[in-house]
Amino acid sequence: MEDFVALLEAQAGIPPEKFWEKMYPYALDVAAELEIPPSVCLAQWAIESSFESPRWCDYNNYAGITDGGPPHFRRYDTIDDFIRDYIRVLRLSYYREVLELAKQHAPAEEIARALGRSPWDAGHYGGDGKNLIAVMRRYNLFLFDPAWWAYRAWRWGVRRGVTDGTAPSTVATREMVVTMLYRALVGEGRE
Fold first, then answer.
1. How far apart are CA 182 and CA 157, in angstroms?
2. Quick check: is 37 in a domain?
3. Are 94 and 117 in contact (CB under 8 A)?
4. In degrees rounded to 5, what are phi and psi of residue 12?
5. Residue 141 — pLDDT band, cuts 50, 70, 90?
6. Helix (H, G, I), strand (E, B) or coil at 118
7. Could you give the CA distance from residue 184 to residue 96 in angstroms, rounded to a whole number?
8. Which of 1, 110, 158, 188 is most buried when burial is the number of CB atoms within 10 A of its CB?
9. Looking at 49-123, which runs of residues are DSSP E strands?
């Protein structure tokens, strides 16, 4: 699995840290809609797009969604268009196990295994999601996962700049809480 992650990094279009920063708000959109942890989406998109390799992401297609199979990959005008279609595809019956586990609030690795058993895996998830999990572990993507009941609120906070989205499950100091309240109520630079 380490070999897979090293190969993926060698093909990277942008540094992984930049990829997480860019795609995290979109992973929160999926989490708020389908309750799939952001770590699962981020790992899948990193693998499918080779960390935004121009080969794939000139089309804003981060998940290898096809029009009838390779090499006919869908093209999207915006990442928001991709996210809408990604959510639509995940609602297809092929991914029932993934959605059922998400609705049961199963651990992220269990959901990744289900995605690895789904038709989405064309061999690059390593069977039973091993490569998805390797990426999740290598980059500790679990730190991006708020509790399932906080998905919508966390997305709101990230989208509005109330929080940067990092480490949603860690303890917040009173300074942090007051700063987040200030950003939400007053906004940066608007007293």
1. 12
2. yes
3. no
4. -60, 135
5. very high
6. coil
7. 37
8. 158
9. none
